[in-house]
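Example 3.
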Amino acid sequence: MSEPILKIENLKEWFPVRRTIAQLLKGEQIWVKAVDGITFDINQGEIFGLVGESGCGKTTTGKLLMKLLEPTDGKIMFKGKDVTHLEANKLKEYRRNVQMVFQDPYASMNPRFRAQDVLEEPLIIHQVGETRAEREKIVRRSLEEVRLIPPEEFMGRFPHMLSGGQRQRVATARTLVLSPSMIVADEPVSMIDLSTRAEILHMMKTVQRELGLTYLYITHDLSTARYFTDRIAVMYLGKIVELASADEVIDNALHPYTKALIAAVCEPVSGKSNTIKEIPIKGEIPSAADIPPGCRFHPRCLYAKPRCQEEEPILKEVKPGHQVACHYPFD
Amino acid sequence: MTDTDNVLKVENLKINFFTRKGTVYAVDDISFTLKKGETLGLVGESGCGKTTTVLGLMKMVPTPGEITGGRILIGGKDIVPLSEDEMRKKVRWGKASMVFQGAMNCLTPVYTIEKQMMETIQEHKQMEYFKAKNIIINYLNLVGLPEEIIRRYPHELSGGMKQRVVIATALFLEPKIVICDEPTTALDVVVQAQIINLIKRLKKKLGLSVIFITHDLATEAEVADRLLVMYAGKLAEIGTNEQIYGKGGPIHPYTKKLLKATPRLHEKVEELSFIPGTPPDLVDPPSGCRFHPRCSEVMERCKKDEPPLIKVEPEHWIACWRNHHE
Amino acid sequence: MKWIDIKAGFRDFWDEFKRVRFGLFGLILLFIFILTVFINPYIVPFPEASSRWRDITYWEDNPVSAPPVWVNWFSSTKRAPSLILKEHDFSEEKMGKIKLARAVFEYEYPYDLPPLDVIFHGYAKGSPVIMLSIERPDGQIVELVRRPISKSDGKDVRVSIGKDSRIESYNFGVKYEKPESNRIEREMVKPTSILFSEAKEGILVHPAPLKGVYKLIIEIILPAENDAVEDIYFTFSGGVSGWLGTDSSKRDIWSGVVAGVKWALLIGLLTAFTAVSIGVIYGVISAYLGGWKDSLMQRIFELFIGVPLLPVLIVMSAIFKPNIWIMILMMSCFFWVGPVKTVRSMGLQIKEETYIEAARAFGASSSRIIFKHMIPLLIPYSFASMALYVPSAIVYEASISLLGLGDSTIVTWGQILHDALTGGAVINGLWWWVIPPGLFIALMGMTFAFIGFAMDKILHPKLRTR
């Protein structure tokens, strides 16, 4: 693998909670620690999966990378340059390189724009293509890239005139018009029917190979993550708890949370309708405004020991290429 | 098999929507049974008519939809001719209740859980306050929620807890049939598994018959004893859990493809297969077999004649010309 | 958006609009109003009313405070209406160097009360002498005026029988009266009432109308070769005048009211358009920026809401020279607060849409997001609220004018009302002076209110962003 295209160091995003008068007088401030110090690299040409339940901070991480939010702390390095805080013109340039596919393709397109306008918008913003005809050529090409053929048939349609799969293709095509080097895909297939889900993932993978793109794939679904990604980072309450290659995470999970997630996944296999499946986890996910001390997973962990309540484990490599944040990964 | 084993029997049910664009044949001539104590899975892509089917069972098809034919026998009695009033008093909630899609997000935000549940209970049955409250607490405990939750507001609860409240509400009047429409779709994996476990436990404990609707074949494998696979308003395949997910696997090309498109966690595949094209517009469904434009095993006959649902082995029915041997 | 999409959008809107009965009625009224502006010169007797409303000479041929002509339909004594008589027989005779021209105008008089005045108009060159006489249905010819014109290259000649032939008329009438009637003052007689009455006793005191065809004869002596009198015609200031009568300054109210349509539309539409545009943009920007900027903008907005408009307008009109443009500006400055609250809350909702976030992720600037993504969604709402602000603007202008602080270079309904009030229209029972402008204000308000409500009714369910 080559030089990492993206390096994230101790990235944090804390949102202040509105204070009561008593808290204001005492000078207290409660924070929702949506992302609480995460560190990882994404290599050039890799598909990196960020997996976790809702509220674990995976979407916030995506927004931080898209610079839709300003990080509270930490550093983002893109192609060797610090992009943590950028001025307007540098930011625009950065956004040409990093694009995003949203969860709901329908909501992510202005309902009054036709597919062509949707695709043309980034070009107009970044002043790519002198004339309308030139821009149309780029639009056409990127529609072909996402296999919407012939492009003319789709260019004039409004989002509501497209099927779910076609919409997500248009959304993907929109990210491609500026020829970016990295795409952040936030749950790109969770709203799409099962029969077409595989088709979209397949298309995205083909595009990635053809154009040498790097993906950050954010999902709650381990099954598609395994199929789609090269490496997976599992997040829990704003922290990465486990990071390894996709196969390693699923076949040899070390963190108890990852194990619970894997156990909970439904598999299309016969003979399970009469048995109750044991899921090695207890309780419910706590609020990000009130993170437990020590290991943040310990109140839900079936194997928690006294040390877990006091000392927070750090993410460290326990096997080659396999990082875990747990005091007792091999118990 | 005798009719007494069947708590629900649907015969040639047809539901049409009369829209401006034309008549939508949302549910077109389907028949099935629900046996006592079993979980019947209903799977299909969005828009295939699975939600419409179960709304039809409750006689709650929204306008401009209408049940245009067929019989729905609950406990041997046809409910299609019943009036709205009789439905509400005798059937809904009492004999069959439903957990609606996204119901957990439809709890009134300004009412406590107690008030929400009390309203439902009293709408269907005259009952003293303390008696009703006791029932509420009993059912909340049954779905694994602590008593103190009755004083909470919906926004103070997590998604899983809200779904449990909704399930508890559906059980109040001790119905024998519970219909769950995508009860786990918006939930996280861990919570999803917990809710599935809950439904299984309740089924055993209360002797319920459950209809479980989802678009996800993987989820269905965990709950359903038998499966109905729907495509474009028609039944494509009926089979037991073993027949669909077991060694033999499904027979109908649609079920086969759908199963192949379902990702498996413990099996790394290079390419997931998918079904090309999109489900048809039900205003003008394709001629012959409705799946033929997307089917890879299509024959000449599929384009002309509609395949009937035939029995290929005990409990296993399919509607496909490929396996039709006269 | 392509033209075809806009067309399709309009067609959908129109299909729904058609079903709202009162909206359609409002639209028809609006169409009539707009049509009135364009065909103004063809439907009013005084097309320059708008620009010469306060020019006394423009109105001098009209009667003072005459009721509308249709009052005759309901009254047993018919009054002669105002009239312009142009048709005449013309003959010329040459007597050496001198030319003698003769023009005869025929006037049919079937009324009970004579016109208040009959005025001769002409354009004279050189130094002609004009002689005016009248031939009555009973065959008598009364010589009325002999007017030599001083030499000029051309000037308007105006001869009023009512003013310039008092003596001649008196002399004609007095012959039939008993001698003791001599005490009737010459200055008191009305020449027209003598000339259009039966020649018998009482002609000066209580004249009886002599109905029939009268001939007004003009004889002109043209002493020089190039002398001429051209464009000759008579105007009759009737006892009834015009569709809506005249005011105490002889102005034709119908002409004034019609001239006011243009100004009402201008004031209403321009104010509503400016105010709503400012308000919508302000609201969206406030919603989009959020945070302390939003708070600050909201406080400024509340400041404007707190200031009562009418007193400010009165003070401004008193300080500056009353001017319609300043008034529109001032009203816009206060009306813009109207849509802000709604637009802001809609903006807050639209702002949360994923496609706004998507646009930001693509690097779209704030102005692009506001003008390309947010404002287009608010256009239907803007139109509906514009329609609802038009009447208020018109009423405000009328109120200011009613207080006498209006723009004196134009004619608006409010000003007509103001004149009526100061001219004692109410006390003197000159209802035709008060009701029409009031009615038009109400009608115009109703028109836009109907259209606005109809649009609101159709567009409101669509206010949801998708």
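The longest strand of chain B covers residues 6-19. The mean pLDDT of chain B is 87.
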